[in-house]
Amino acid sequence: MDCTESMGAYIAAAKNSINILTKTLTALFKIPPRLAFIGYRDVSDGANKLIRMNFTTDVGTFQKVLGNIAAFGGGDECEDVFGGIQAVAALQW
């Protein structure tokens, strides 16, 4: 997910949708889903350019991490989309 400052409203909407989806899946299938999160920002955002959360079945922990995601950083440089893709590929599938 693009977590740069200009994406604030979209991040809020995505968080809400992800929380609803997580609750719905858990209720429908009676088993916790495996959830992971990767967020990316501009390359110039340094250590804050990637947010990684490996797969978990702990819905509460996932929702807590998701709730703490904040839109900041960014600028005129390109977002590190490729870094985000690399982070997804590095998850423990």
TrEMBL record:
Protein known as: VWFA domain-containing protein
- Its signal peptide is none
**PANTHER family given in the database record:** ALPHA-PROTEIN KINASE VWKA
Query: Which species?
Result: Rotaria socialis
Q: InterPro entries, per this entry? A: Thr-specific_kinase-like, vWFA_dom_sf
Q: Which Gene3D superfamilies match?
A: von Willebrand factor, type A domain (3.40.50.410)
Lineage, top-rank taxon, reads Eukaryota
